[in-house]
Amino acid sequence: MFHLEYDVMVVGGGIAGQETALNLADMGFKVIIIEKEASIGGKMILLSKVFPTLDCASCIATPKMSETMRHENIEVLSYSEVMSIERIDKKFKVKILKKPKYVREDLCTGCQECEANCPVNVEDQFNFGLVGRRAAYIPFSTAIPKTAVIDIENCVLCGVCERVCPANAIDFTQEPETYTLKVKAVVLATGFNLFPARKKPQYGFGKFPNVMDAMEMDRLLSPTRPYNAVVRPLDGKIPENIAYVLCTGSRDITAGNPICSQICCMYSIKQAQLLMGALPLADITIYYIDIRAFGKGFEEFYQQAKDMGVQFVKGKVAKIEEIKETGNLIVRYEDIEGSGGVKEAEHDLVVLSVGMLSNPEAAGMFKFETLELDEFNYVKQVDPLLNPAKTNLKGVFAAGTATGPKDIPDSILSAGAASAEVAAYIRSIK
Amino acid sequence: MERVNPDFSEKIKKYGAFDISACYNCGNCTAICPLSTEDNSFPRKMVRATVLGLENKIASSLDPWLCYYCGECSDTCPRDADPGGLMMALRRYQIRKFSVGRISDLFYQGFSSFWAWFVLTLLGVLGIFFFKNNPDMKEIKPLSFVSLNVLHDGGIILFVFLLVVSFLQLLLMLKSIKLTKKDGIGIKAYLNSFLEVFFNEVLSQNKFSKCENKKRYTAHLLLLWGFIGLFLATITVMLFDFFFPANEGIRIIPKVLGLISGIPSLYGVSFFLWYRLKKADKYFRFSHHTDWIFIILIFFAILSGYLLDILRWSSAVKIYYFTFAFHLIVVFELILTFPFTKFAHVMYRPFALLLADIKK
To answer: What is the pTM of this model?
Structure first.
């Protein structure tokens, strides 16, 4: 199926991982991507549009994913995890666990017959629970590899998929497999975790149905959106008055994340503009502490949102309460720039602009060595100015949000830096 | 024009507000505060004034007294700047600021505070030696230890002193708050507000009950009622003394009232003592020495009071007189320092609430 020796192993198949792999593969290096989900794509493929250009996210990400998959120098191992990385001389011995999909990837054509016939309904993790999926499913419509997976934990083992599969690809006898690879360099592109909005109980996420997080809203706005409309969760009503609560779980010591996530201001402004297009009659209010529009074209994008009629209110929302009868929400804030004093405003939908948290998983992969993390549990950049991809371990590099909060352009930039540094490193050890 | 004191945020650290400069003005504290209203919003304004060093603005603000330190602001402050702790610190600051002749300075600075209490205690001890009679060692007779006249005259002198000082200090507060004409000051306005504040706020502690954490509210309410009971008991004793000096039977009324009132007081003060010792909540993370002294004095005053009632039925004559002396000293210290220590919140808070109500 694949070789056991590669030049580079990229951990994580998000946009940064793909970019690193493609750059290196184009230079002639053999690359393997280890992706823990059943499809590559990471977080970006789930987004609606990107800021500040309002380009369609999947229109950029899908071609890149397919290029990654089809590249002759890249091998993609999806539904797999790195068990351990051990340094041997100048190389690394890597143990990989490939979880069984119970579907033979070489036979599956992605026809979705199994999905159509599966009787099980569970929450769809790629739509953040907004809709359901089957136990036999294709992760999302633009998934790559486009092969089915059977979620064995929820499967009732009825065997219907096995009977209906025209390619005879269903194979319940699959077992977890482990592989041992030899690689010269490792790139950690392990990305980030979203701040779980439940950790801010004052906002009632998970308690009040009409409080959603921004990732859910991005799903509602994306081309592959679940309901084909922007509706609020409680009753399917088209919202007329939407609030955004910025800095939910960013710049907040008592919520456990003191740093700025760098993306929430801009993605909220992006969503506000998209909502103005989707729901021309809706009022949109963004509650902020500071608007941090620091990148190229960001400030103009912010002004554009203001000109479109988005209301910006300075003041952190402290508390959200629900009106039982209507399901509408009361947000309580101090109107700092306006007339002052505590204010309460009613909205029929509240979107929490959740921040980024680090994903420190990579630290657990190394055997006999310790990967240094920074104080916020991101991979530590030991030389952030001159070698931004360098970690404390020789031959181990990091790209994208593994080293700290970044937007998409910055992630891709850091992936470019990582690929150049990796190439130089591999040439130097020859 | 406002004068700026650039060292104010440094100065306020001594009163227990340590991290206030971390504030980035998001307004979370004001918005989460269950007591903050649209017309009267705090604590962010106070935080801002502190960081900027607007000392006069702070000295002339009622906001510190409208805060009951529920602590929700401090629990959720994104910068962990402890705005509730600042409000507490500003109350300490104002108590010092409004005190006549700056007597409070003696009790609020660590070193001089030690000497002030030491000298007071010494005075108490000397006073006992000076005024005490030759007590009856066969049978416990409290009035044979200190005569009724001494207690009576001393009480009245103390009472007049407190009345004058408290009145002056409330005047100082009133002056610094600067009520304007349009705030409609008239006897009627004062009376209306007084009734409103007295029943809806002082007796019921309505505002305090809006805090999410009800434990402190309950303890404080019980302590307050207990104190009112003890106060009434004392007053009735005096009145009965005056009107029915011969009637011994009627004395049972203040006695019972005092005994009953001691229970909630003791519960309340023990709660605060225990929570501060344990640092059980965030709000008890830091205790100023004035907090400790206030609680400990009340605790010992009530405890020794009960002990006296118990010992009364025993034959431990010596222990009884010692306890009695101890009780007298503690009560003397507590009452004498009323306008200058944490105890003064008993007058400042209702007065501030009254002024806030008039301003509204």
So the answer is: 0.91
